[in-house]
């Protein structure tokens, strides 16, 4: 889930 | 989602709306750099490769679609629309964007969080977004006249990334192991590139004079 932390930004 | 990031996304959205409105209503793109618009279309195309594979939230998907649609339609307007393209001064907008694309691509190949196609493309889009405004700033320096819509567009574009920096600071302190140097450094470089524009923008606004950039 860590990799999502920045990928969830536009 | 935190207030800084929401404000940043809304500011970013406003910047593309202002630009689309300007081009659509007065049917002119005078003072707008097509090079910068093409770079932004490339930034979104390489940033949002995962739009159909990884669903994060409805908001995320809708905003991605809006940014993709608006950036490509602005490029279309400036290249194809029979009236708008007449107001595009291509002999002033001469920044060769290959000089920006290649270094960003090379850098992304060496500095990335994971050496996969998607990750390299995503990192490339971050580096490219940091420098995408350069052709526009060069054009503003050359033409020296900045109509207030273009000034607002550049201001909002710079403000959105500044708000994102606040968002990264907030997330660093509130989320464990939220550390992303690549994102943070490219976002900081991007905001610093706007710094001198901000300086002249605020001065012109404060002294209520027309915005002039030094030659």
From TrEMBL, chain B:
GO molecular function: ER retention sequence binding
GO cellular component: endoplasmic reticulum membrane
Biological-process GO terms, alphabetical: protein retention in ER lumen; protein transport; vesicle-mediated transport
Compartment(s) of residence: Endoplasmic reticulum membrane
InterPro entries attached to this UniProt entry: ER_ret_rcpt
Superkingdom, natural source: Eukaryota
Spans through the membrane: 55-77, 98-115, 121-140, 152-170, 182-202
Pfam family, one: ER_lumen_recept
Keywords assigned: Endoplasmic reticulum, ER-Golgi transport, Membrane, Protein transport, Receptor, Transmembrane, Transmembrane helix, Transport
Family: Belongs to the ERD2 family.
Protein name: ER lumen protein-retaining receptor
């Amino acid at each position: 889930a860590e990799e999502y932390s920045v990928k969830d930004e536009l | 989602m935190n207030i800084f990031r929401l404000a940043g996304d809304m500011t970013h959205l406003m910047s593309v709306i202002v630009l689309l409105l300007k081009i659509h209503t007065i049917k002119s793109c005078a003072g707008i750099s097509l090079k910068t618009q093409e770079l932004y279309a490339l930034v979104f195309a390489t940033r949002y490769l995962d739009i159909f594979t990884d669903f994060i939230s409805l908001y995320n998907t809708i905003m991605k679609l809006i940014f993709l649609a608006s950036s490509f339609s602005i490029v279309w307007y400036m290249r194809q629309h029979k009236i708008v393209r007449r107001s595009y001064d291509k002999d002033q907008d001469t920044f060769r964007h290959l000089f920006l694309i290649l270094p960003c691509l090379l850098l992304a190949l060496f500095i990335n969080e994971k050496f996969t196609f998607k990750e390299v493309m995503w990192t490339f889009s971050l580096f490219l977004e940091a420098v995408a405004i350069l052709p526009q700033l060069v054009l503003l320096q050359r033409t020296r006249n900045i109509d207030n819509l273009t000034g607002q567009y550049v201001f909002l574009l710079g403000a959105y990334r500044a708000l994102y920096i606040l968002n990264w600071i907030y997330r660093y302190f509130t989320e464990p192991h939220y550390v992303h140097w690549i994102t943070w450094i490219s976002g900081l470089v991007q905001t610093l590139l706007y710094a001198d524009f901000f300086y002249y923008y605020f001065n012109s606004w404060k002294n209520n004079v027309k915005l002039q950039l030094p030659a």
